[in-house]
Amino acid sequence: FNDREYFDIWKEAHNALVHWTKIGHLYVEVDYQKLVVTYPAFESLQCYWPGMQILYGNVNEAIFTFFEFYSLWRRYGFIPEAFDLSKGRLYKDFGRGYPLRPELSESLYYISTALKDDVWYIFGRDITENIHNYTKLECGFASVLDVSQHTLKDHMDSFFFIRNM
After folding, report:
1. Fewer CB in a 10 Å sphere around the end CB: N or C, the chain?
2. 72-95 tens-digit pLDDT
């Protein structure tokens, strides 16, 4: 941060997040007034978190969190938009797709850079190969409509090339 005031703000927010939303190595949504879990789900945008943990210096926690997220990647071949933690499965009606989000790869970059260990490239290769093998088309890449079926959707968000390639 290079600014003590902003770092103190970050630490306070981080400590509250860990205290109120962390379950194991995953994080859930909590009602800020009642302080109870409102949505026991993993959401794909959470994959940025191991990268933030690395930047904060929580290397071991970043590794554990990354592997929680990566286990979903291995299970489905992609990260679903949402996963019901209370039932241990995909939701039936929403969150089954993968719009080629880069957050897991970005966190992997931070981890591999911090640890300076080539073993992390194995995970990057796995992610890259799945994206290439299942979503690459003649005209670009397609989002995944349903990670359990690997069905594709005729759509590619602009962030894919900017942040994944």
Report:
1. C
2. 999 999 999 999 999 999 999 999
